[in-house]
Amino acid sequence: MKSYREEIWFNCKKRIDFICITEQVGEILKKSEIKEGLCLVNSMHISSSVFINDNESGLHKDFEKWLEKLAPYEPISQYRHNDTGEDNADSHLKRTIMGREVVVAITKGELDFGLWEEIFYGEFDGLRKKRVLVKIIGE
Amino acid sequence: MKSYREEIWFNCKKRIDFICITEQVGEILKKSEIKEGLCLVNSMHISSSVFINDNESGLHKDFEKWLEKLAPYEPISQYRHNDTGEDNADSHLKRTIMGREVVVAITKGELDFGLWEEIFYGEFDGLRKKRVLVKIIGE
Amino acid sequence: MKSYREEIWFNCKKRIDFICITEQVGEILKKSEIKEGLCLVNSMHISSSVFINDNESGLHKDFEKWLEKLAPYEPISQYRHNDTGEDNADSHLKRTIMGREVVVAITKGELDFGLWEEIFYGEFDGLRKKRVLVKIIGE
Predict the structure, then answer these.
(1) What is the average pLDDT value for chain B, to the nearest integer?
(2) How far does A99 lie from chain C, in Å, by closest CA?
(3) Which domains occur in chain B, in start order?
(4) How far is CA B95 from CA A47, B43, B70, in A?
(5) What's the sign of the alpha-carbon dihedral A1, A109, A50, C130?
């Protein structure tokens, strides 16, 4: 069994952002030389996500508006987490909806995806350096 | 390390549906001849889900009503994704709540499940052909 | 390829509770002697979760209040699942939001975590014995 590990770093200029990382994960997969196996891609932070969905800008606007409705940023005082001096309780909730990680099958050296599947980094508390872990195991 | 891959196809006659696929995944596991490992089961589409919960028809009605409350289909015009001519933005949101994938432990050649765990395909934009990927790695 | 399996048992005295299990999972990892691989941690029940977030008590209060808003316990009669004599339909929905499982990379014999990542068991229908499965594969 082989394994390979690499990080992808981000520094989003917006508080909330969605960044397509399919190509970067595919390049890491090539470097791994793994042909059959599983690829874990996870945020290493608790206020951001990795998820799979459509690379369509209208949908990303829908996600942002929808998450704001389900887990609003304001009023900041509604969250006990923000009593610690933080203002990012909502980002922990938003990330929970969108998910921490994806696991992708590797088949014949490729990400084994359906037609519209793309991997995204979802940032909910940006303006600082953050990273995603890619861990691949297989043969 | 061994690996095995198979697809399960669907053509739901309803827009929203939940289909138990535990038995089909178990049959694929037998064909794989893998005794210890991990089994990934994921939707290959971005408007449907794979998830684990209870095989109880009342609960499935609750899921459908609850998802409609959290991510309503109508009005279609509330979603920017639907400006592309689609009407399925809500199905992308519903699938996000229910999840894209599950990872199941394989132990002694069986799906290593608790008493009530069953795997479901959750369709949120049916009336067309769709598929689920089963990828098993192990020994 | 090596594999290792162990269960963690709980008997929460509250209906809803969040219990940090990072240390227990780390001890199981040591026993496995696996240095590179993937670690699956999943609830074996359909009314509880395993998830990764912040070990901060204010945030856990926020999670509890937020889940109660998104999937309220009462009125019990709003859920068809409860027609079976159960009163826990809401716990199936809450667990869906929080997730069934996490997959964690194993690197150099350690859980490959970012700074604030901690694994939690999330109970939404406590006062009974329940368990979590830890399955590790790798080398």
Answers:
(1) 98
(2) 8
(3) 2-138 (2.60.120.460)
(4) 21, 10, 11
(5) negative
C105 to chain B, any CB pair closer than 8 A? The answer is no
A56 in contact with B, Cβ within 8 Å: yes
Query: Do residues B47 and B17 touch, judged by C-beta distance below 8 A?
Result: no
ipTM of the complex: 0.97
Query: B99: which chain A residues are within 8 Å (Cβ-Cβ)?
Result: 99
Q: Which of B133, B131, B123 is nearest to B90 (CA)?
A: B123
Residues C23-62: pLDDT tens digits? 999 999 999 999 999 999 999 999 999 999 999 999 999 9
Strand order in the sheet with B37-43: B2-10, B130-138, B37-43, B101-107, B110-111
CA pseudo-torsion sign B12, B18, B23, B29: positive
Neighbours of C75 (CB within 10 A): 8
Per DSSP bridges, beta strands C17-20 and C37-43 are unpaired
Q: Which two tokens stand for residue A99?
A: 């998910």
Per cent of chain A over pLDDT 70 is 100
In tens, the pLDDT along C53-72 reads 999 999 999 999 999 999 99
A94, A67 in Cβ contact below 8 A?
yes
**C117 close contact with A: CB closer than 8 A:** yes
Considering only CA atoms, give the Rg of chain A. 16
pLDDT band at B88, cuts 50/70/90? very high
